[in-house]
Amino acid sequence: MFHNERQVQIEWGDCDPADIVFYPRYFAYFDASTGALFEAMGFSLRYIRDELKAVGFPMVDTRSQFFKPSKYGDKVIIKSEFTEIGRASFGIRHRLFNEGDLAIECTEKRVWACHTLDGSLKAKAIPDDIRAKMLSHG
């Protein structure tokens, strides 16, 4: 399935007084990595919103395991890949590496969503061209 990789440098503001990344910041990294995964496929969030009239892909479940801390100044690699593709939902796995070691593994389940006429959110089938790219070996 399609995958992407990006480098992140840990900033001072990401860290707690113990000089390690405050754990909620990792979820921000992984959310940005999901966006980068779609960008790498050629589908920006602007395109998804403006052209496809979708809201995007809200999170319905996330889980993480922490193996090694990261500190201010560390350059980490986040590898992201689709793990499953349903009709309207999909899974992503993010693995964050620090100095070659697996530091964190995170899984996400997201849904393709659009607004209904009354303004509420509703899951919708993932468009065929996006599904095809998700399933490719990018």
Textual characterization of the structure:
This is 4-hydroxybenzoyl-CoA thioesterase. It comes from Marinomonas alcarazii. One of its GO terms (molecular function) is fatty acyl-CoA hydrolase activity. This protein has 138 residues and is an alpha+beta fold. It has a single domain (3-135), classed as Thiol Ester Dehydrase, Chain A. Helix content is 24%, strand content 38%. It contains three helices and seven strands, in the order E-H-H-E-E-E-E-E-E-H. It has helices spanning 23-41, 45-50, 128-135; strands spanning 3-9, 59-66, 75-85, 89-98, 101-111, 113-115, 121-123. It has a five-stranded antiparallel β-sheet. Strands 6-7 form a two-stranded antiparallel sheet. The radius of gyration is 16 Å and the shape is elongated. The termini are close together. The model has no long low-confidence stretch (mean pLDDT 96).
